[in-house]
Specification:
Blueprint: H1 2-9, H2 11-31, E1 44-50, H3 56-71, E2 77-85, E3 89-96, H4 102-116, H5 122-127, E4 130-134, E5 138-145, H6 153-163, H7 165-169, E6 174-179, E7 185-191, H8 193-198, H9 203-213, E8 218-222, E9 235-238, H10 246-250, E10 253-256, E11 262-264, E12 269-275, E13 281-284, E14 287-296, H11 302-317, E15 325-331, H12 332-362, H13 365-372, H14 374-388, H15 395-425, H16 431-457, H17 465-490, H18 492-500, H19 512-544, H20 546-566, E16 579-585, H21 592-607, E17 612-622, E18 627-639, H22 649-662, E19 667-672, E20 685-691, H23 697-711, E21 717-722, E22 728-735, H24 737-742, H25 747-758, E23 761-768, E24 771-779, E25 794-796, E26 802-804, E27 809-816, E28 819-823, E29 826-835, H26 841-856, E30 860-865, H27 866-872, H28 877-897, H29 902-907, H30 910-923, H31 930-961, H32 965-995, H33 1002-1045, H34 1051-1057
Parallel strand pairs: 7-24
Antiparallel strand pairs: 1-3, 1-4, 2-3, 2-28, 5-14, 5-15, 6-14, 7-12, 8-9, 10-11, 13-14, 13-17, 16-18, 16-19, 17-18, 20-29, 20-30, 21-29, 22-27, 23-24, 25-26, 28-29
Helix pairs in contact: 1-16, 1-18, 2-14, 2-18, 3-4, 12-13, 12-15, 12-32, 13-15, 13-18, 14-15, 14-17, 15-16, 15-17, 15-32, 16-17, 16-18, 16-28, 16-31, 19-20, 19-32, 19-33, 20-30, 20-33, 23-26, 28-31, 30-31, 30-33, 31-32, 31-33, 32-33
């Protein structure tokens, strides 16, 4: 073709073009972000509020419900969940559509929150409601430790807050950094009720005195304008301000006497700089630990960000006080780094395997080098496309590049093989003329096959949501690499062929040594000649008995569909990421000390398991409900690198479950890390049982018990449980309002007295190290242990007398929820679970929905979050992508051949592609997943590519050689069989390292590698047999129809028109 002739005549131009593409790709590769997955996690906005002293139900009703009603329906919202804990904390999360602007989402949510503030309790309003964009993509966890025990958690938490967090938040790529546990500094006023009684004081009076003396006083100015007479200076008057240390608070005056004596705060209370919260305790290998969670900024380079964090921490550690150290107990980049290393190793293996395959078939090192020269140019040049499309280097794009090795070399093989064939058939032709003639023959197929490969992936570029992001990055990567390979096959490859290929090289007399070396290659040629003869025997039979070929193809299609619908499916396969999460549960209302003791025993037992590196534990935090709970805990169990252990993450999960059951006092549930961090908290599914008719917490709990019982009996479900419980022991303050009013005591004074003594009574703020912290009132611990301690709390009556609360307040024992959850605007019971062996996650989700409907009826339902939400809303996206991909192939072929019938011959290879792809997955016992669906698209494109080679050459035989349809079909099959097998084997063996990968991300590699390798093998073996038969049938029918419609035209005109718009 004339386009290629230009580059054949100007080889330096072609070489410069290849060099420029390589250089541009190299430069782009240096600045591209590296991450595990592209941005497939929905942006999440977090709303947090605190109602001091309120129980979970009260917080849910008075705080969570009004906010949820106001926020519900905000633009681009996917779902909304909230958790209200019995420590007064409320956390609400709103997930938005993938690809939306997080800042806009935050503004929209904040506007809704501001409109609902007036409906919230005053205590909540006074503390403020925070709205922030939350990054669920945890990059790493850095922890401060004190191995020698010199520092407690309070000191380390606040040291991190004051000296580390701001530095980490400024690191490029860090989205946020926060201390897990959040025990910030607070001025704790520990009151002694006996001393308050001695001095005739009440807690409310103490709080009032603190507020009066710990405040900013704007005193004004001296000589401020306007003045009757001009003044030279203006002075600001200061009148003290917020207190800043414990001595200031100790000297707060509670009373002054006429004799000059005074009563200070230190006379009735113990004052210390403590923590705002004591409900969480973290330990690493038994030593005190303060964990700092670091979230990655969307689009940032994970590896570079993690390295920058390590560098920053190393610099900051130089300023640490003696005895304070830091460690990194959790680092996702270790898995990312290992995964990238595994894929790069696979890439190199695939590259070397393809070289060997090409050399065996071409049997000439010049041909091999020329064909392989397009691989580095196409692959490296693809990184420039990443930059243009704002892609990152991630597992999906790296998988695509590995597969591209076997794809991009196809066009070059086609050119080199055709040049070699022309030279072998004509002795007198020059290499340059042979190259020009070869390009005239294969230029069209190169363009056509490249368009086909790109067309398969065009529809997925328009898919939105989770699957759209997954498909787009993979598909466009393949499309870019194929486009570049086609460009190189039309420019660089013919230029090199015209220069480096030697004529009549096969006729050169070989030395004995060379003959000995090439003996295996000659034996291979004999074997392949015999194999080709067998192939041609089958082709001739199938061309003759086309009805049998049609029947077998229909059976293949039906069998493929049956396999597909009966193979378990999942969204993204779980993989061994080198870390296991453990959720620890103790009896409800268990103390933090008790939880710590159980977790210490469990941690010690886990660290004795071979393959475990260390464990870190956080007592007092429930990862499943994302709430503070003294009877719950979370553990991170780190494993040794993949090459240094035989233990898998799944095996470790089973061992930890057994250990948890063997230790008295609690239980442990172990989970694999979710395949995509930030999409879900744990592996398996997470959902909420909802009541649409306003069920009470008790009714919701009873319904959850029924669902748990029914779900765990279902064959498709495994380990289904709920974290919701309304039987948590607690006490309720019963107030005799009539009696209280008869004493002249206002009800709000009673609530204030209870909060200031038994709870964290918030007073106001104080200043410390240029920051504002809270002041809290509370009784000393010995005065708030039993219900009888209410008699030590006093309020002031209407006559000025102190009255004990026990006169009209009694503490009654009750049971209730420690955490109340909501999904959307409905109360919900959170459920966790997974699929039973042999069943897919999609089947498990459907089974849960069926269990709810069958057990409870239509007034109940399941609301899904995270991975389960994406999977339940996936619908037929994958099917549509494949169908539209096939449709695009058909349309492009129709345009190329100017025929509506001949493209059908190409598409007949599709059933064999599906049979191999899904058959390989089924034989290996794998689930269908997004990776399998992507692999199917690749195989469909490659199947069409192989079919085009046969159909295109058959058409040439008819048009230029005047052969009959059957002869043309058989001749094309024979001529193109060797290059088809060569390119197919190059692709199959090039993808085998993926199918057989070990180490990090091996499961994902197995899914996509098995699909494309076995699928391509099926296309090469079966598709190549049947395509000539279908071409003959379709061309014959088209010929007959055309002849019938144009009976007066001669055979020559008929042949000239053949292939045009006939049927």
């Amino acid at each position: 073709m004339s386009f290629s002739n230009f580059f054949i005549s100007r080889p330096i131009f072609a070489t410069v073009l290849a060099i420029i593409l390589t250089l541009v790709g190299t430069m782009a590769m240096r600045i591209l972000p590296i991450e595990q997955y592209p941005s497939v996690v929905p942006p999440t906005v977090s709303v947090q509020a605190q109602f001091p002293g309120a129980d979970a139900e009260t917080v849910a009703q008075t705080v969570a419900a009004p906010l949820a009603e106001a926020i519900n329906g905000v633009e681009d919202m996917l779902y909304m969940t909230s958790n209200s804990a019995d420590n007064g904390l409320m956390s609400l999360s709103v997930a938005f559509n993938i690809g939306t602007d997080g800042d806009i989402n935050t503004i929209n949510v904040n506007n809704r929150v501001q409109g609902a503030l007036s409906r919230l309790p005053e205590a909540v309003q006074s503390q403020g409601v925070s709205v922030s964009l939350r990054s669920d993509s945890i990059l790493m966890l850095v922890a401060l430790t004190s191995p020698s025990g010199d520092y407690n958690n309070v000191y380390m938490q606040n040291y991190a807050t004051l000296n580390i967090l701001d530095e980490l938040r400024q690191v490029p790529g860090v989205g946020n950094a926060e201390v897990l546990g959040g025990g910030e500094f607070a001025m704790r006023i520990w009151m002694d009720p006996d001393k308050l009684a001695q001095y005739d004081l009440t807690p409310s009076e103490v709080a009032s005195a603190i507020r009066a003396q710990n405040t900013e006083i704007p005193a004004g100015n001296l000589a401020a304008t306007p003045q009757s007479e001009p003044r030279a200076y203006t002075y600001t008057i200061t009148a003290g301000g917020r207190l800043s240390d414990t001595d200031d608070f100790r000297n707060i005056y509670l009373r002054t006497n006429p004799d000059g004596s005074s009563l200070r705060l230190e006379d009735v209370a113990r004052i210390e700089l403590g923590a705002s919260f004591y409900g969480v305790d973290a330990r690493l290998n038994g030593a005190t630990m303060t964990p700092i969670i670091i979230n990655q900024q969307p689009g940032a380079n994970a590896l570079e960000t993690a390295e920058a964090v390590r560098t920053t921490m190393e610099e900051l550690s130089g300023r640490f006080p003696p005895g304070l150290e830091y460690v990194t107990p959790y680092d996702t980049t270790l898995f990312i780094d290992a995964s990238v290393e595994t894929v790069l190793k696979t890439f190199i293996e695939a590259f070397l395997i393809v070289i060997v395959i090409l050399f065996i078939f071409l049997q000439n090192w010049r041909f091999t080098v020329i064909a392989m020269s397009v691989v580095p140019v196409s692959v490296i040049g693809t990184f420039a496309g990443f930059y243009l499309f704002d892609f990152s280097i991630n597992l999906l794009t790296l998988f695509a590049l590995v597969l591209s090795i076997g794809i991009v070399v196809d066009d070059a093989i086609l050119v080199v093989e055709n040049v070699e064939r022309v030279l072998s058939e004509e002795d007198d032709i020059s290499v340059r003329d042979a190259t020009i003639r070869a390009m005239k023959e294969v230029g069209g197929p190169v363009i056509a096959t490249s368009l086909i490969m790109a067309a398969v992936f065009v529809p997925v570029a328009f898919l939105g949501g989770f699957t759209g992001q997954i498909y787009q990055q993979f598909a466009i990567t393949v499309a870019i690499s194929v486009a570049l390979s086609a460009l190189m096959a039309l420019t660089f490859t013919p230029a090199l062929s015209a220069i480096f290929i030697k004529h009549n090289l096969h006729k050169t007399k070989q030395s004995a040594f060379k003959r000995a070396i090439t003996t295996p290659l000659r034996l291979f040629d004999r074997f392949f000649a015999g194999f080709t003869a067998v192939y041609m025997w089958f082709v001739k039979k199938l061309v003759r008995f086309w009805v049998l070929a049609l029947a077998l193809t229909v059976m293949t299609g039906v069998g493929s569909y049956w396999l597909y619908i009966n193979t378990p499916a999942t969204l993204v396969p779980e993989t061994d990421q080198g870390i296991v999460l453990v959720s620890v549960s103790l009896p409800d209302a268990a103390s933090l000390d008790r939880t710590q003791n159980y977790m210490a025993k469990l941690s010690a037992a886990i660290e004795d398991i071979p393959g475990v590196q260390y464990s870190s534990a956080v007592a007092g935090y429930d990862i499943l409900s994302s709430a503070v709970n003294t009877a719950r805990g979370i553990m991170f169990v780190n494993m040794h690198p993949w090459a240094e252990r035989e233990l898998t993450a799944d095996q470790l999960v089973g061992k930890i479950m057994q250990l948890g059951a063997s230790i008295d006092g609690g239980s442990a549930m172990a989970f694999n890390v979710p395949p995509i961090m930030g999409l879900s908290t744990t592996g398996g599914f997470t959902g909420y049982l909802q009541s649409f008719d306003g069920a009470s917490p008790r009714e919701l709990y009873e319904a959850s018990l029924q669902i748990m019982g029914a779900a765990n009996q279902h064959p498709a479900l495994n380990r289904v449980f709920s974290t919701f419980n309304v039987n948590v022991p607690s006490y309720r303050a019963e107030i005799d309002q009539q009696k209280a009013l008869s004493y002249g005591v206002a009800l709000e004074n009673i609530s204030s007295a209870l909060s200031n003594t038994f709870g964290n009574g918030f007073v106001n703020f104080f200043s410390y190290q240029n920051r504002n912290f809270q002041v809290y009132l509370q009784n000393e611990d010995e005065f708030r242990k039993t219900p009888d301690d209410v008699s030590n709390v006093y309020v002031r009556g209407g006559n000025g007398e102190r009255i004990p609360l026990s006169e009209f307040v009694t503490l009654e024992r009750q049971v209730g929820p420690s955490v109340v959850s909501r999904f959307g605007v409905y109360a919900g019971a959170q459920f966790q679970g997974g699929a039973a062996p042999g069943f897919s996650s999609a089947e498990a989700i459907q089974a849960m929905e069926e269990v709810v409907q069958d057990t409870l009826g239509s007034n109940w339902g399941m609301g899904w979050t995270g991975t389960a939400y994406q999977e339940s809303n996936l619908g037929n996206t994958a099917t549509l992508a494949i169908v539209f991909g096939i449709l695009m192939v058909f349309l492009i072929l129709a345009a190329q051949y100017e025929s509506w019938s001949l493209p059908l011959a190409v598409l007949t290879a599709t059933p064999f592609a599906f049979l191999g792809g899904i058959g390989g997955i089924a034989l290996r016992g794998l689930d269908t997943s997004v990776y399998v669906q992507i692999g199917m698209l690749v195989v469909v494109g490659l199947a069409a590519k192989n079919a085009i080679l046969i159909v295109e050459f058959a058409e040439l035989q008819r048009k230029e050689q005047g052969k009959s349809i059957r002869e043309a079909a058989i001749t094309a099959a024979e001529l193109r069989f060797r290059p088809i097998v060569m390119t197919s084997l190059a692709f199959i063996f090039g993808t085998l390292p993926l199918a057989l990968a070990t180490g990090a991300s091996d499961v994902s590699s197995h899914h996509i590698g098995t699909t494309v390798a076995v699928g391509m093998a099926s296309v090469a073996i079966l598709g190549s047999l049947f395509i000539p038969s279908f071409y003959a049938v379709i061309a014959t029918v088209s010929d007959w129809l055309y002849h019938k419609r144009h009976p007066d035209q001669g055979r020559d005109n008929e042949q000239a028109a053949l292939g045009h718009d006939q049927p």
